[in-house]
Design a protein that fits this description.
There is one protein chain. This protein has helices spanning about 5-15, 20-30, 35-45, 60-75. The protein is an all-alpha fold. The chain has a domain at about 25-75. The longest helix has 18 residues, at about 60-75.
Amino acid sequence: MGERGQEEHRQFVTGLTGGERLLVTLRDELYEGSWDLMLEDLRDRLEKRPYIFKLSSRIEADMAAIEKLRAYEAKENVNLRDYLGGAPGEEVPEDGEAF
C-alpha cells in the first residue's frame, strides 16, 4: 500500500469518535476480529437472548457505527486497528458507554 493510502486511513481513524475506536478494539479483543460476531451479539441483546458483553444501552447506534467501520475496512481492504494509536482501550469513555 502506498504512503498516500496509509495517510488516508490514518485520517479516517483520526476522525473516529472514542466510541467508534472502542468498537474496533472490542471487535479484535472480544470477537476474534469479526464484525459479524459482534453484530450477532448486539442483535441477541436486542432480542433479550444471552449475549457476550454489554457495549452500551444504545445498541442501534453501535450497530450503525459497526456498519460504517466494516464498510470502510471492506472498501479499503484494511484493518482499522492497525491505525489506532496508543494502548487498546485507551479511548474508553469513563461511563463505559460506547457513545
